[in-house]
Design goal:
The structure holds two protein chains of two kinds. By secondary structure, chain A is mainly alpha-helical. Chain A has helices at residues 2-16, 38-47, 52-61, 91-111, 115-136, 160-178, 190-204, 207-220, 267-271, 284-292, 313-317, 364-377, 382-385, 390-395, 408-423, 429-435, 439-443, 458-463; strands at 139-140, 157-158, 247-251, 319-327, 332-341, 359-363. In chain A, helix 7 runs antiparallel to helix 8 (207-220) and helix 8 packs across helix 12 (364-377). Chain B is 10% helix and 44% strand. The chains are: A mainly alpha, B mainly beta.
């Protein structure tokens, strides 16, 4: 009988062995299983890629630097509710990518024990929310790596000022505290965070708070190995992007890596005329702006056929092509000069798919100009402000403005103009106009301020049954 | 009653006449063999009694008996449990061989239920049963094909007629709107990871389908789609028997050719023109051009319609060996089966090999043990390219060029030049200037060589020759594609059973199985006449599913006087692992050998799976019957499944059922007409997990390469710790009636089903990381009625005739979608040519909506009526439902548009009917299946006709282009634009099988040393009646894959369904 119970016992034992309902796949990771969150941080960086093309298009085509050619893309050049039709192309992918970057960053911030990783994640989260606020104004704030699927109250959009004060500023402040000053390509650093924080304050109109941060970058740059490149064209192009001393932070792109939003990495495409929607994107207004400074030169080029004999940045920013003439003596076509083509060569097609350019987020010239702007707004005298522009202008083959302009308003204008020339096709222009309140003046038309921001993706409004609201006017 | 009695007397009298012809009283010895009707095998232990005496004998292991009778008028009564008893008058014979039929209505018939068996008379749930012999009698490549029409409440739809393709099996109502509703397959108690096709039809003893919740609830979370229990054959003690079954068959597509070749088209065009039907469309053509084109169609050498090339007669052969036997202690059954089937479409084929071994042993008085193995491999060759597209070819050329066809195209080009020079307009372009690529075979018609695949462009374009789109020829398309699927399946399971006390047993089952499915498809450069790299691909997947099951049950069964109690309680653990890789390659190089190593690394995408699913269950059931009158059954199962959210991992599934055998009550005991009256009621709840992924409740970071190094990307699921079962609460009301000793029986079941917490992919904010999440929202309600009728119409020694029939209805309504009025609408078909599929509260699942049409736009308005073979206008007049002057096919009439419901692919009712007849040594059976009221959106005619039509001469139809035809003031619209012009009736009535067999006289058989030999001829789909407006090859066909196919919510689009197959078979069953 005992034997039998032993046997029965063993029968049951066969049955009871193993079977754990807690299952997780070995070839995937989860927040619970990870101990090293570097891969999650990498994802947070990677998702910034999805915002590059939208920012490039919004920053330039919405403003007076570029224009669209083909409907419905031409909605970018007018200020009506019809812009919502561009959702799938631009605002939608930007929105999705940035909130994914935020989720990844939240995961690192909540779960990692590495202070530097957390600092980088906070930088990326601050950057993401900053881009969202610039694009949409009020936005939903999510600081959790696993937000509730059912509690829709967490989706309610928060006022932009709250997003600035409660998320962006604290995140960037924390990042400044822990991050190293040394720049590693594509990675957040102390000065990237500080430069960004300066820009954030400037965008809020709080120039008093902006100034010290921008000053810290400009003054600390040299020690951290950050300096302006000698020639303007050395900043751009795939060949120049490795260890470039001027670039403080960029989003890395290589064509061999799959990009979730397949056009994200191809922002250059919109500028070089490769897309029929923007065959000749350069806005004549930008050319006029370059023409306006043609007299203000330090090293005039004598060739009368070259229309770029003013600002040296012109040739980098606007494409030229050879003009030829048939020579009856040699019976061949000879180049007699160049003409401008209404496309931009600032980011030429590089590599197989052309997607080899990094997206420059912050470079020293941008910070210097912002610093000058902050000083001017904080009532520093023109003689203090304008010398800051000298290195940039000298590199562009232009004279120093010191002494030529004196009033605060004039200084404000020359800084804005300088930003336009220096940063054209880098996705800044529209946001600069909005920040400085010069949309109507610069665009030469009255733009309803509803259209300073872009429409929230309609799919978000529908999916949340209206908890996420649409911007006024759209 | 009296009348019936009289009838009975008359019958007896008649029978008396038949058997009393030779009255001759003298003592003699009768010998004979008693065999089972189903398999022709000898029945051991049959009681043979001389009627009216106590003289008796019983048959030996082979069914032989010997008995002494008093004379020729003696009557022998043969009786055997579970079989219909038979009386035979001896007459002048010394040998009386008898065949006994299984008593389908026998009170003590045993039915397999979950984790046990039950007497049929004690059943309280809704269970359909089919015997193994009935399954094996149909020469199908798969078990499920053989079930078509046999079971009430079980819809078997031949969605794809290619050999080896899985039919749709739907038991009662669809239990999900998220995915297919495939039932759970349990073979000899083991829920297998493979499909039912892994079971050899010849190995099946019986097959039971648990339909209602109360029956299936013991399978808890897996029972909601119904459960199919397969019981395979076991060995019997006694002499070993050996059986060999073989057949060969030849098959062809049922429907005759429906497409015209170029020459046929020319003849048709000439007769239409002569009849004056095409006057105005022809008038637009220069007469010289018209004649040039028509004579080119007529004279194209070797031109065949694509059907003549694509379809063939397929041959199938099948061999099955089985052996069974045993001693008192050990029994075995072993079998090997092989089948090789060719499809009726070239390149289609199916080959399978099965092997089974079942061994059962008694280990002393207390222990029993057994071991079984089933192995299966199959190789399915699949048509490598969309059939619709292959049939869309123009029929203007041979498949491969010949000397004649090359000379013809060159002469046609020269003739074009001659006419063009003579001033005939539109013929100036040489054929070589057409729409073609270079680098693949010939890029000029002057470089063609015999044997090259004919391409459309080589016959010019429609306006300068008789070619068409510049598409590759069908041979080039098919020869440059390949697609196959291989399956390997193995299942081993063993059990040990111990009898603790009389009536109380404990049993442990341990087993494992593995299914390995490999699929491959490629498309090479030559597929495309323009030789575009971007048209190539090469995909390979390999998925291994292994499961380990262990289960221990305690069984108790005892009869105490009038109380019959049985109970089972058990625990079960099952672990399933899925390991697989998928390779997807693009830009496949144009080389003779294909290999992934030849592709650039960036052109290969790899997906890997490594998943584990675990389930733990406890379950129990108590059955109780009092005096065979009052029946009750209660069951409970508690399942834990790793796929659900941490908060909702366990669920309990209870069921209750009651029955009342009213005919056993005293007040009905004397009733001779009504032999059975049973009322049944059951209610229970079930779960569904089948379509949930292993980790849908988890939020998993997927590894991917980024510029920054390895990135753990945002999960494709949001974590949902509350993700849980869909629960299906079902109530069943049944009544069983039997008349005249159950010679006629009728069963009726009515059920309602309410599925709550339906798993739906709901849209959500992107802030959560994904645009959708699977949530438990929604409610679907269904109800249905099922009828099952059986009759032994005639049953005497020389002639018997029995029939059974069934009819079922299902009605389903979506009652809640988690606060939504409607799921997002989807257009599913081919390249947006399909209906608008709507799923909304108050509607059915997957309703097809579109514009209502009121007639075709006439051929007269075609820009160029003779343009290419099978040309149609492709447009219809449509109704502006709301009269707003705009045809809006994006919104319903209710929402201000013009969409109306145009169809749905669920039948109003479906039925089956089978007959079995025996006359002396001959047997005959036939099986009908029918389905009524379902519709398909059949895209094929659009493609066959002039590349989906729409080449109207709008200047004549609608001069001011306002969308309203000038001549009749009606709106017109392209058929492809979500109209009901493509909706066709999918109803059908099929004579699925007809078999006529002859069993050789047993005396003769014995002489050659066999126990029985039977030869038969059979036909499948000898008759297949389709709806009047159905124009393709298979009304049951629907597309079940493709990028925007979303499961049941977009079900009903037909795109190139493989045809209904008619086959003729000759077969032989030999038993030793």
């Amino acid at each position: 009988m005992k034997k039998i119970f032993l046997l029965l016992g063993s029968l049951l034992f066969i049955t009871a062995c193993s079977t754990d309902l807690e299952q997780a796949p070995p070839n995937f990771a989860s927040a619970d299983s990870l101990t090293d969150f570097e891969g999650v941080l990498n994802a947070a960086y990677y998702y910034q890629l999805g915002a590059t093309t939208p920012l490039a298009v919004m920053g330039e085509f919405r403003a007076d630097n570029a224009f669209m050619f083909e409907a419905p893309y031409t909605e970018f050049d007018v200020y009506t509710s019809n812009l919502t039709t561009m959702e799938d192309q631009f605002f939608g992918p930007l929105y999705t990518a940035l909130y994914k970057s935020i989720l990844s960053a939240n995961n690192v911030i909540e779960n990692s024990s590495d202070a530097t990783e957390i600092g980088e994640a906070k930088f990326l989260r601050g950057l993401s929310y900053f881009k969202l606020v610039l694009t949409f104004g009020d936005v939903t704030v999510n600081l959790s790596p696993a937000p509730s699927l059912t509690d829709t109250s967490i989706l309610v959009r928060q006022p932009a000022t709250d997003v600035y004060n409660n998320v962006i500023i604290p995140d960037l402040t924390d990042a400044i505290d822990v991050l190293d000053a040394t720049i590693v390509d594509g990675r957040a650093s102390k000065y990237a965070a500080q430069g960004l924080l300066g820009k954030v304050y400037a965008s809020m109109g709080d120039y008093a708070s902006a100034e010290p941060h921008l000053a810290a970058v400009v003054n600390g740059a040299a020690a951290a190995g950050i300096s302006l490149k000698d020639n303007f064209d050395e900043i751009f192009g795939a060949a120049n992007e490795v260890g470039n001393s001027e670039i403080i932070f960029s989003t890395q792109i290589v064509s061999s890596i799959v990009d979730e939003y397949s056009f994200a990495s191809r922002f250059w495409n919109w500028f070089v005329g490769d897309d029929s929607k923007s065959d000749f994107p350069v806005d004549p207004d930008l050319i006029a702006a370059f023409d306006a400074v043609s007299g203000d030169i330090t090293n005039p080029i004598s060739d009368p056929f070259r229309p770029d004999n003013g600002d040296l940045r012109r040739r980098v920013t606007i494409t030229t092509s050879d003009v030829t003439e048939f020579d009856p003596i040699t019976e061949t076509n000879v180049v007699i000069g160049e003409e401008e083509v209404l496309t931009s060569s600032k980011f030429p097609k590089d590599g197989g798919l052309g997607s080899e350019h990094d997206w420059i987020e912050i470079r020293l010239a941008d910070v210097i100009l912002l610093y000058a702007e902050a000083l001017n707004e904080n009532n520093a005298p023109a003689s203090t402000v304008l010398p800051l522009l000298d290195d940039i202008r000298t590199r562009a083959g232009l004279n120093s403005l010191t002494g030529t302009v004196t009033s605060q308003a004039d200084v404000r204008q020359v800084i804005l103009d300088e930003r336009r020339m220096e940063l054209a096709f880098e996705g800044h222009r529209w946001f600069d106009l909005v920040r400085t309140g010069t949309v109507d003046a610069e665009m030469g038309e009255t733009v309803n301020s509803n259209y300073y921001v872009f429409p929230i993706p309609v799919s978000e409004v529908l999916a949340t049954k209206g908890v996420i609201t649409q911007n006024t006017g759209y | 009653m009296k009348q019936t009695k009289n009838l009975k007397k008359t019958l007896l009298l008649l029978m008396g006449f038949c058997f009393a012809l030779n009255l001759n009283a003298q003592q003699k010895t009768i010998t004979g063999v008693v065999t089972a009707e189903a398999d022709g095998l000898g029945l051991p232990g049959v009681n043979v009694i001389v009627k009216g005496t106590s003289t008796g004998a019983s048959t030996d292991f082979d069914g032989n008996y010997t008995i002494n009778v008093s004379g020729n008028d003696a009557i022998l009564t043969f009786s055997y449990i579970g079989y219909v008893s038979k009386d035979v008058t001896v007459g002048g014979n010394n040998t009386v061989n008898v065949t006994l039929a299984e008593d389908l209505a026998a009170l003590d018939e045993v039915v397999v239920v979950g984790y046990g068996t039950r007497k049929k008379s004690h059943l309280t749930g809704a269970i359909a049963k089919v015997g193994g012999a009935e399954v094996a009698a149909i020469q199908a490549t798969r078990v499920d094909d053989a079930l078509a029409g046999k079971l009430p409440g079980v819809l078997i739809q031949n969605q794809d007629g290619s050999p080896g393709a899985a039919p749709k099996i739907q038991i009662r109502a669809a239990s999900s709107i998220s995915s297919a509703s495939n039932p759970l397959i349990v073979v000899d108690g083991y829920p297998i990871s493979g499909g039912i096709e892994t079971v050899n039809p010849n190995d099946i003893q019986s097959l039971e389908v648990l339909k209602d919740a109360a029956s299936a609830a013991i399978y808890g979370s897996r029972g909601a789609n119904g459960v199919i229990l397969v019981t395979t054959k076991k060995g019997k003690s006694g002499k070993a028997t050996f059986s060999y079954n073989t057949y060969v068959s030849t098959s062809s597509k049922y429907r005759d050719n429906i497409l015209m070749s170029g020459p046929e088209w020319a003849a048709n065009a000439r007769s239409q023109i002569a009849a004056g039907n095409w006057t105005s469309t022809v008038a637009t053509q220069d007469p010289a051009f018209l004649e040039y084109r028509l004579s080119a169609y007529e004279n194209s050498p070797g031109a065949i319609s694509p059907e003549d090339w694509l379809f063939q007669n397929g041959n199938t052969m099948s061999h099955d060996f089985s052996m069974s036997g045993g001693s008192d202690d050990v029994n075995f059954f072993a079998s090997v089966g092989y089948q090789n089937a060719e499809g009726v479409v070239i390149t289609q084929g199916f080959e399978r090999l099965n092997a089974r071994l079942n061994v059962d042993a008694k280990l002393g008085d207390k222990f029993k043990a057994g071991l079984s193995f089933n192995g299966f491999t199959s190789n399915r060759d699949i048509l490598g390219h969309d059939m619709r597209d292959l049939l869309r070819a123009y029929g203007i050329s041979p498949v491969l060029h010949t000397e004649e066809s090359i000379a013809f195209v060159q002469a046609l080009d020269a003739e074009r030049q001659r006419l063009s020079d003579a001033g005939v307009p539109g013929l100036s372009a040489p054929f070589d200037s057409g729409y073609r690529g270079s680098g693949y075979e010939a890029s000029s018609i002057y470089d063609l060589e015999p044997g090259m695949a004919a391409q459309d462009w080589q016959y010019g374009r429609a306006n300068n020759g008789i070619g068409g789109s510049g598409d590759a020829g069908p041979a080039a398309k098919l020869d440059n594609t390949d697609s196959w699927e291989k399956t390997f399946f193995g299942n081993v399971s063993s059990y040990l059973e111990y009898s603790i006390l009389d009536g109380l047993n404990i049993k442990t089952v341990l087993g494992g199985d593995m299914t390995d499915t490999q699929a491959y498809a490629h498309r090479l450069l030559g597929f495309d006449s323009r030789a575009r790299d971007s048209q190539t691909f090469m995909n390979q997947t390999d998925l291994k599913v292994t499961t380990v099951l262990s289960e221990t049950t305690l069984n108790y069964a005892k009869v105490f006087g009038k109380h019959d109690v049985s109970a089972v309680a058990g625990v079960e653990f099952q672990t399933t692992k899925l390991v697989g890789t998928a390779l997807a390659g693009v830009n496949v190089p144009d080389t003779a050998i294909q290999n992934f190593n030849l592709l650039a690394p960036a052109d290969i995408t790899v997906t890997e799976r490594d998943e584990t699913r675990a389930r733990k269950s406890v379950f129990g059931r108590i059955n109780y019957a009092y005096d065979d009158k009052y029946l009750a059954s209660v069951s409970l199962r508690r399942d834990g499944d790793s796929r659900f959210g941490a908060n909702q991992r366990y669920e309990t599934f209870p069921a209750l059922s009651l029955g009342w055998n009213v005919h056993n009550e005293a007040f009905l005991a004397d009733n001779e007409v009504l032999s059975k009256l049973k009322l049944r009621f059951s209610a229970g709840s079930l779960g569904t997990v089948s379509f949930l992924g292993s980790y849908d409740a988890l939020s998993l970071l997927s590894p991917a390469a980024t510029v920054y190094g390895t990135g753990f990307l945002i999960p494709s699921n949001s974590a949902n710790e509350n993700l849980t079962w869909q629960t299906n609460t079902e109530t069943n009301y049944g009544i069983d009636l039997g008349f005249l000793n159950n010679r006629f029986t009728l069963g009726v079941d009515y059920y309602t089903s309410d599925i709550k917490d339906i798993l739906i992919n709901q849209a959500q904010s992107e802030i959560l990381g994904n645009p959708t999440s699977i949530l438990n929202v929604g409610d679907v309600r269904s109800s249905g009625v099922e009828f099952e009728l059986s009759a032994r119409i005639i049953n005497n020694d020389n002639f018997s005739w029995s029939m059974s029939g069934n009819l079922s209805t299902v009605n389903t309504e979506i009652t809640d979608l988690g606060g939504l009025d409607e799921l997002p609408q989807a257009i599913y078909g081919q390249s947006g040519r399909g209906p608008v599929f709507r799923n909304y509260v108050g509607g059915g699942i997957g309703e097809m909506w579109g514009l209502e049409t009121i007639g075709d736009v006439e051929m007269e308005y075609l820009a160029d009526g003779t343009r290419n073979p099978n040309n149609q206008t492709g447009e219809s007049y449509v109704v502006d439902q709301n009269g707003d002057g705009v045809i809006d096919r994006t919104r319903t009439v209710e929402d201000g548009g013009d969409l109306v419901k145009i169809g749905q692919n669920t039948p109003d009712f479906y039925w089956g009917m089978s007959h079995n007849l025996n006359y002396k040594d001959f047997d005959m059976s036939f099986q009908f299946q029918g389905s009524h009221g379902a519709e398909v959106y059949n895209i094929d005619p659009l493609y066959y006709g002039s590349q989906w039509g729409g080449r109207l001469d709008y200047a004549r139809l609608d001069a001011n282009s306002d969308g309203i035809a000038d001549q009749n003031g009606e709106y017109y619209e392209r058929n492809r634009n979500q109209t009901d012009a493509m909706i066709q009736d999918a109803s059908f009535i099929a004579l699925r099988n007809l078999t006529i067999g002859y069993t050789l006289n047993s005396d003769l058989t014995k002489k050659i040393g066999l126990s029985s030999i039977r030869a038969y001829v059979a036909a499948s789909n000898l008759l297949y009646i389709m709806g009047d407006d159905y124009t393709s090859y298979n009304p049951e066909g629907v597309k079940t894959s493709g990028s925007d196919y979303l499961g049941p919510t977009t079900y009903g689009a037909q795109v190139g369904a493989s045809p209904v197959v008619r086959s003729f078979t000759f077969g032989l069953n030999v038993n030793f």
